[in-house]
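ok, trying the design again with the full structure, not the truncated one.
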């Protein structure tokens, strides 16, 4: 017989909101999370840049019965379609019994991550070293990208229109690239500078070669010439072809479990593949849905969602319009009844940097999926602050399905801030809230998430779709 709780303890239980934390999970749930994350790690390793994430997504979707969307075809409940936007973003839809007459259910994540892009004229030789000039992409602390192995991914378009895929540095025995840093012995001036000045954007030069072209009969830029001749042999490109290319440097290392308990995953690009993958899997697993469910994996979030593959483009709007046409309703009416989970990460409370956070309103590793009612900066600038009504709907969905969740504000008030695609979705007259996974070391080359949080994100998107 267990001891009866005191009256005060009973009242406390009834009235107070105590976070349950990681202890609330069963052994079975933890096993499910671990197994789900094995798939996630494969996705991560295959998709450091958005074009690769699109390819992986389409392959997984086709294997699950999705077909390329044809606006002229007519679709029925249960049909599954995908639509690719310029190889850099992709929408998946599972047609519901009601179609989009009462709106669609949207889960939108981004598949671009902070990285180092090559400048249009990247290659140069200096003091017998060949280097690439770069322009960083997204918000990054530049010093974190020095002295780590980097790999080159992207495409080069030749004058005749041929598109050449470039991938160099991933394989165990393949060479890779690196940004050099100054030795501590000579860094007395560097280390006393403010961090933003100690290592600047123009210092992000990538070492790509050092050996002169052999048996040359003159001495002009032989290291650069040697690099070009290797690239020409492998890809058929000349230096001018860099002008029509998208080449990115991303960390070479693969996703690794973290901790003696392997409870976390360290990897490049969790932001925001850690939401993209669960949203993809939810679309693949969702069956017999009432309202059409759309997972949209977008590009360019890290640089403000501008551009025709970013969330500010009309691509998704037009896709919904096409779906609405099928159902004989106006596109704007379908949109105005739609609901969305903006699937993006939030900053997990880090005890080492506790002063950057406000503990009562931060999210925590292993606390479950995180809801951010608003993001932005200052006095709630540049954000879509979700309504109490919509927040209430999502909260009740999570509680009803026993999904571990928590609330999260991005750090303490006025310390900085950030945004997500939520505000652009809201501008389409859609109810939207941010829901995603807490991340440690966000935007670093090696970010950390909890496996059970990743699994809870999947469960949240899935239940949102099938409710
Ligand atoms: Mn993000
Ligand atoms: Mn980000």
């Amino acid at each position: 017989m267990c001891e009866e709780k005191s009256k005060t303890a009973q009242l406390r239980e009834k009235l107070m909101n105590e976070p349950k934390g990681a202890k609330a999970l069963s052994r079975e749930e933890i096993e499910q999370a671990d197994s789900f994350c094995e798939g996630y790690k494969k996705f991560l390793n295959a998709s450091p840049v958005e074009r690769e994430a699109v390819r992986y997504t389409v392959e997984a979707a086709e294997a699950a019965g999705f077909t390329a969307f044809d606006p002229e075809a007519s679709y029925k409940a249960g049909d599954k379609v995908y639509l690719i936007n310029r190889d850099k973003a992709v929408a998946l839809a599972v047609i519901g019994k009601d179609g989009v007459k009462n709106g669609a259910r949207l889960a939108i994540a981004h598949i671009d991550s902070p990285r180092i892009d090559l400048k249009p004229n990247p290659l140069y030789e200096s003091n017998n070293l060949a280097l690439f000039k770069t322009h960083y992409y997204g918000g990054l602390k530049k010093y974190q990208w020095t002295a780590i192995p980097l790999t080159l991914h992207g495409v080069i378009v030749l004058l005749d229109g041929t598109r050449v895929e470039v991938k160099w540095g991933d394989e165990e025995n393949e060479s890779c690239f690196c940004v050099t840093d100054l030795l501590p012995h000579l860094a007395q001036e560097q280390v006393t500078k403010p961090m933003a000045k100690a290592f600047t954007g123009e210092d992000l030069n990538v070492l790509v070669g050092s050996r002169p072209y052999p048996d040359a009969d003159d001495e002009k830029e032989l290291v650069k010439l040697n690099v070009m001749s290797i690239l020409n042999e492998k890809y058929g490109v000349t230096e001018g072809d860099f002008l029509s290319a998208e080449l990115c440097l991303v960390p070479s290392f693969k996703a690794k479990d973290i901790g003696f308990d392997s409870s976390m995953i360290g990897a490049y690009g969790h932001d925001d593949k850690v939401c993209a993958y669960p949203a993809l899997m939810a679309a693949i697993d969702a069956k017999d849905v009432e309202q059409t469910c759309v997972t949209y994996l977008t590009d360019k979030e890290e640089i403000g969602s501008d551009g025709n593959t970013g969330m500010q483009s009309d691509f998704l709007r037009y896709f919904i319009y096409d779906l609405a046409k099928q159902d004989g309703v106006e596109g704007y009416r379908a949109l105005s009844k739609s609901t969305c989970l903006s699937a993006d990460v939030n900053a997990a409370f880090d005890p080492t940097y506790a002063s950057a956070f406000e503990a009562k309103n931060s999210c925590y590793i292993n606390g479950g999926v995180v809801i951010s009612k608003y993001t932005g900066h200052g006095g709630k600038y540049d954000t879509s602050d979700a309504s109490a009504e919509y927040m209430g709907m999502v909260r009740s969905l999570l509680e009803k399905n026993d999904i571990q969740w928590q609330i999260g504000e991005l750090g303490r008030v006025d310390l900085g801030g950030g945004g997500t695609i939520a505000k652009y979705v809201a501008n389409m007259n859609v109810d939207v809230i941010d829901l995603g996974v807490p991340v440690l070391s966000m935007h670093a080359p090696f970010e950390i998430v909890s496996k059970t949080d990743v699994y809870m994100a999947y469960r949240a998107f899935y239940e949102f779709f099938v409710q």
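Keeping the full-length input from now on. The mean pLDDT is 96.
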